[in-house]
Amino acid sequence: MAEQNVPNKLGINILSSEQQEKLRQFKIKTRIENESYLMAHPEVELMIGDFLRNVLLKRPDDILEFAAGKFETHKLCWFKTRPLWGPPQGAHVPPGECVP
User: Fold this and answer.
1) Which domain of life is it from (predicted)?
2) Cα–Cα distances in angstroms (integers) from residue 55 to residues 30, 37, 49, 64, 71, in the given order
């Protein structure tokens, strides 16, 4: 049985009871704020889902380079104009332009 005063790997026992309660309240508040934001912005879920689907389908060797290409400004325009469907097959959006 571990002693109560011995810090665990996360260092939680280093905090006082008051600090632990403040941390708990902060985590709850942050989670509520994050959930509210995500509910107000469903495009986040669509973008992440689309990105993950493409990563798993294409399995790029350099995921950071792949992500940079996927999230180029001109490609993100499609999420603004057609968030549920994406660009039509073969559509080309010139860099810096947002086609409705």
Assistant:
1) Eukaryota
2) 29, 25, 10, 11, 13
